[in-house]
Amino acid sequence: KGKAKGQKGKKITLKIAKNSIRISFDGGRRLDLSKMGITTFPKCILKLADVDELDLSRNMLKKIPSSIEKFQKLRWLDLHSNQLEELPKAIGTLQNLFYLNICNNKLTTKNLPEELNLLKNLRILNLGLNCLDSIPTSLGALKELKEIGLFDNALTTIPNSVKKLPKLKKLNAKRNPFPDSTEQEEHADSIKCIEMLYLVQEKDLCSSCLKMCQDERAKLNKLKNVTPSPSKKPSFPLLFTPNSTAKDNQEEWRLR
Q1: What confidence tier does 7 reach under pLDDT thresholds 50, 70, 90?
Q2: Which of 94, 131, 182, 215 is 20 to 30 Å from 53 by CA-CA measure?
Q3: What is the mean pLDDT of the chain?
Q4: In this prediction, what percent of the chain has a pLDDT beyond 70?
């Protein structure tokens, strides 16, 4: 009591971590430490580095250490909704990774490690809700990529090397300051992008993102009050209160 420790987070013990292991629907071992109030990466979980999936989403992590390379079996890594400003170069050693979600953090382009392009088996990459002003052309090396989220950043263009990835099926680049609306539509629609919304809870958003979402909700509520023609009656009730329907699991982003 009385000691200055800065922001205090929950201490994760090895026992807590072991009790947080779940079996995912495809039989993998998933270490689920989401929404635990964690502020620093728990060193004790390095003793559980043989898990297939690691979920550290919805915490207050500012840094992921290079020791993440110990998780060589990792196929699925979820770090969304933290306070991350950078990623370690060691993330490029996770050669089995097919899913990486780093949405809703504070990542800038210069702090995206070039080693991301070493993740040759990556199929789903979510970089939405960050502070990216450009996308490295080197991400064009991720030939297995099928889905990429780039929404809510500061992008003015997307490199052809990324747009023309051979297996890409979904590209969400909504709400970026592209030079003109036609270019934004091209990025959004050229690849059949949006089949579902990516939802987060209001408490996980920064103030500027929350205001933007509230403004969008207000626009949608106006649309709701406009009576549509009988032949083209829209039906998208989930859009009116997006954050109220946020789900705890991230199965929607899994590779099926």
Answers
A1: low
A2: 131
A3: 82
A4: 73
Nearest C-alpha neighbor of 90 from the set 58, 63, 109, 129: 63
Domain count, the chain: 1
| CA-angle at 89, arms to 134 and 13, nearest 5° | 120
What CA dihedral angle connects 126, 51, 27 and 79, to 10 degrees? -20
- Residue 256, classed as helix, strand or coil, is coil
The predicted model gives 8-35 an average pLDDT of 91
Residue 238, domain member (yes or no): no
The parent domain of residue 28 ranges over 23-118+129-143+151-172
Residue 109 lies in a domain: yes
- Rounded Cα–Cα distance for residues 204 and 158 (Å): 27
Task: Beginning with the edge strand found earlier in the chain, give each strand of the sheet holding 76-78 in spatial order.
Answer: 21-23, 29-32, 53-55, 76-78, 99-101, 124-126, 147-149, 170-172
Angle at 147 between CA 122 and CA 256, to 5 degrees: 80
Other CB atoms within 10 Å distance of the CB of residue 250: 18
Q: Is 123 helix (H, G, I), strand (E, B) or coil?
A: coil
Q: Which two tokens stand for residue 41?
A: 């990466």
Provide the whole-model pTM.
0.71
* Cα 81 from Cα 201, distance rounded (Å): 9
pLDDT value of position 222: 72
Average pLDDT over residues 32-61: 96
Token duo for residue 199: 């939802």
Which pLDDT value is given to residue 234? 47
CATH number for position 61: 3.80.10.10
pLDDT at 215: 80
pLDDT value at residue 238: 47
33 within a domain of the structure (yes/no): yes
